[in-house]
Amino acid sequence: MTPGAGAAPAAHESLPAPTTGAALELRAGAMVWRREMLHFVRDPARAAVSLFQPMLFLFILGVGLARLLDESSAGGSAGDAYLRFVFPGVLVMAAQAPAISAGASIVWDRESGFLREMLVAPVHRSTLVLGKCLGGATVATCNAVVVLACAGLVQIPYHPGLLAALLAQLSLTALAMTALGSAVAVSIRRMQTFHTVLGVLMTPLLFLSGMMFPLSAMPGWMAAIALANPLTYAVDAQRRTIEAVIGGGPAQSTAFLSTVEWGGWQPPVALEVLLVAACTAAALTWTARRFARVI
Fold first, then answer.
1. Residue 80 and residue 63 in contact, taking contact as beta carbons nearer than 8 Å
2. Which residues cross the membrane (predicted)?
3. What pTM, to 2 d.p., does this model score?
4. Termini Cα distance of the chain
5. Cβ proximity of 7 and 114 under 8 Å
6. What is the phi/psi pair of residue 265, to 5°?
7. Which domain holds residue 253?
8. Rounded distance, CA 76 to CA 83, Å?
9. 49-83 pLDDT, tens per residue?
10. Phi and psi, residue 66, nearest 5°
11. Among 163, 195, 219, 242, which is least packed by CB within 10 angstroms?
């Protein structure tokens, strides 16, 4: 692989030379991952701007709605519960923009000619896809960690176990969104079309994930669509992880903050995480198969 337009200069200099086929695949994947990370580190302004929208949702829209709920509730605790309710969705929103950018880079690399140079490397195409998606997911997770650091401001404790669990679930969700963006990218040749399709696709995925309001408040047809949305289970798993640590606090005592149910049965958090992982694996597999035909 030779440096081309948009390539990170000398990204492979410190990596050892491969000795076996597996080492060659690992080295190629690491190079692609490192290239995504270098782009992230060298452009902090883009990361800062991408955090503006989730912060706006949490600390302006969320706080406004929380105060409205406080005034309408008897005990005045519904507002704090609502902020904790929207927090997992805001975490996912913070990871969304950089996750999609990984897919956009595929379209950009194809237009600049760099993708053609990547594809002549003597490694499996799936290795290149996995390296790019892992790089995008790492960047997206780093972005969302900034919002996670604000957990104390919405009365979520800085419990080490809770933070580790949320970080793991967030990393998986970021990988799922990166895989989705890459799947769209390998099917579209024009950058303008890519952004239009992703905008149309991601907006309903986010709003139908139970991010801002529970599925129990949706009409039947909308709740059915939400149950088919993988992000619904990613958001719900994080929300229930938080509630498990908070215990019998306001989040559990507020009736409208219900969780996902299948015909009255509540799937366990582990099953929700497995569903997200299965959707991620399916998207990665499909993207790897399509990746060979992107030129």
1. no
2. 47-69, 81-108, 129-156, 162-186, 193-213, 269-288
3. 0.86
4. 16
5. yes
6. -100, 130
7. 25-31+41-294
8. 13
9. 889 999 999 999 999 988 888 887 766 677 888 88
10. -65, -40
11. 219
